[in-house]
Amino acid sequence: MALKIFNTLGGQKETFEPLTPGRVHMYVCGVTVYDSAHLGHCRFLITFDVIYRYLRFLGFDVNYVRNFTDVDDKIIKRANEENASCEAITERYIGEFHQDSGALGLLAPTIEPRATAHIAEIVEMIKRLEAQGLAYRVDGDVFFSVAGFGDYGKLSRKNIDELEAGARVEVDERKRSPLDFALWKSSKPGEPTWESPWGHGRPGWHIECSAMSTKYLGQPFDIHGGGRDLIFPHHENEIAQSEGAYGRPLARFWLHNGFLNINQEKMSKSLGNFFTIREILDDFDPAALRHYFLSSHYRSPMDFSKDGLNEAARATDRIIETLDRVNYWAGYGAPVVADPAVIESFRAEMDDDFNTPRALALIFDEVRSLNRLLDGKKSKGIEERGAALGAICDTLGLLRDGYADRKKQRFLKKTNITIEQIKEFIDLRDQARAAKNWQEADRIRDQLAANGIVLEDTVQGTMWKVK
Question: What is the mean pLDDT of residues 240-249?
Answer without folding.
Answer: 97
